[in-house]
Amino acid sequence: MDYAALYQKKLTSAENAVKLVKSGDWVDYGWCTNHPYTLDKALAARTNELRDVKVRGGVTMWMPEICKAEDAGEHFTWHSWHCSGIDRKIIAKGMGYFSPMRYSELPRFYRDGNVSVDVAMIQVTPMDKHGNFSYALASSHLADMLERAKTVIVEVNENMPWIYGLTGCEINIEDVDLVVEGENPPVAQLGAGGAPTEVDRAVANLVVPEIPNGACLQLGIGGMPNTIGSMIAQSDLKDLSVHTEMYVDGFVDMALAGKITGKYKTLDKGRQVFAFAAGTQKLYDYMDRNPAVMGAPVDYTNDVHVISQIDNFISINNAIDCDLFGQINAESAGIKHISGTGGQLDFAMGAYLSRGGKSFICMSSTVTGKDGSVKSRIVPTLTPGSIATDPRSCVHYVVTEYGMVNLKGLSTWERAEALIGIAHPDFRDELIAQAEKMHIWRRSNR
User: Fold this and answer.
1) Burial class of 92 by CB neighbour count within 10 A (0 to 12, 13 to 18, 19+)
2) Counted domains in the chain
């Protein structure tokens, strides 16, 4: 097979490629750093020719051109599988919606025909000598999405890192309809965030001692997980491994500090496994053609049964709030959507099923609103409209700067007492009063 000749035969301009999109079509932009760039601009240039084009994406890193026009919603509707700040802006504009899911199930949505794809367009690496393009930083669900698509358009970006991985991490030129050589923008970066707060450090100081040598780590996105990762890099821990949904800078810090060897990992020994990655250029440079990291479809990385086979699995995630029954909300503030279920529930369950495994839900005890008001993150019941990301039956450890509690095996009154004990002191009396009204308070001898 002359792959170079086939490449040239399928090579076209972005303007020509997007002519395949028709009014009423479902268009898939892929995931996170793989969203198209040049193709998106070309599609936006056709805005006035199109109506009712539905576009899917997720963890959006920059504002799509198709969403920028004042009347963009008259032509395009955005569907996000997992919301970033950009997705929230699109939804607030009135032209976007969230699609609820457990991220581990997303590939099956495409395989089972629950969703249709008329045109798929994603950024990929340049083609190798075998005719393959790497999905780079996001294996995620892309193989199943592209298999489902009626038309596949790839946009080549020379700056995309090549990631080694399992099946489902590359596409061959034979399976591509059109190739567009893009403008080669820098890979979108996710800032490492500001300096850790005292609260972040206090929570990390409680969690890190619970991690044994040889543990396998999953870190969620956010300040606290990143702070924990930084503290692990500076700790005496050794022979750690990685199996995670999202690969972030904290893992690079640990790896460069010699903390990650994968020596005792019971699956994929020696490999840091992930579904997608986003971070700084340091992360992209580290991952490029690095056999220590391995991309994989999300129905492998987030599979509860896979996670449970890895001994001493440690899952560390954030939350927005937690009620006195132990329900965790990690995705909305009332009806205002913030992120998504993602893999938090899968990792919470999988970690607990792992031999020696632990799941930690971390949060500050309070949050300060835009008006300066301070509210407790531990609440009597979740705010109406808020989503219970983790049901009370699946929560293991909950951590604030005031302490850590293990909810497994506790009755409703024991849970209420334990959670009130790690709430901010200014809110404890009111929480006790509310617990009494809900008949989940028993006056202890303490």
Assistant:
1) exposed
2) 2
As given in the structure block, the two tokens for residue 33 are 């750093």
- Cα separation, 225 vs 443, in Å, equals 35
Give the Cα separation of 44 and 62 in Å (integer): 14
C-alpha 438/C-alpha 440 separation (Å) is 6
Report the SS3 class of residue 162: coil
Q: Which of 147, 181, 215 is the last residue of a domain?
A: 181
Sheet harboring 11-12: ordered strands across? 11-12, 178-181, 151-156, 119-124, 26-28, 53-57, 76-80, 96-98
Q: What is the CATH number of the domain that holds 229?
A: 3.40.1080.20
Distance CA 130, CA 147 (A): 20
Report angle CA 321, 326, 329 to the nearest 5 degrees. Answer: 35
**Exposed e or buried b for every residue in 15-32, given b needs 16+ CB within 10 A?**
eebbebbeeebbbbbbbb
CA angle 293, 216, 331 (to 5 degrees): 90
- pLDDT surpassing 90 at residue 423: yes
- Indicate if 167 and 313 belong to the same structural domain: no
Q: What CATH number is associated with residue 15?
A: 3.40.1080.10
**Do the bridges between strand 374-376 and strand 366-368 make them parallel or antiparallel, or are there none, so unpaired?**
antiparallel
- The residues carrying an active-site annotation are 245
Residues 136 and 236 in one domain: no
3-class state of residue 342 by DSSP: coil
Question: How many angstroms separate the CA atoms of 290 and 303, rounded?
Answer: 24
Q: What share of the chain is helix, strand, coil (3-state, %, to 5)?
A: 35, 25, 45
Distance of alpha carbon 243 from alpha carbon 303, whole angstroms: 11
pTM of the entire predicted model: 0.96
pLDDT, tens digit (0-9, with 9 covering 90-100), for 138-157: 999 999 999 999 999 999 99
CA dist., res. 263 & res. 180, Å (int): 42
- Residue 317: the pLDDT is 95
- What are the tens digits of pLDDT across the range 85-132? 999 999 999 999 999 999 999 999 999 999 999 999 999 999 999 999
Q: Is 283 within 8 Å of 273 (Cβ atoms)?
A: no
Range of the domain at 394: 198-437
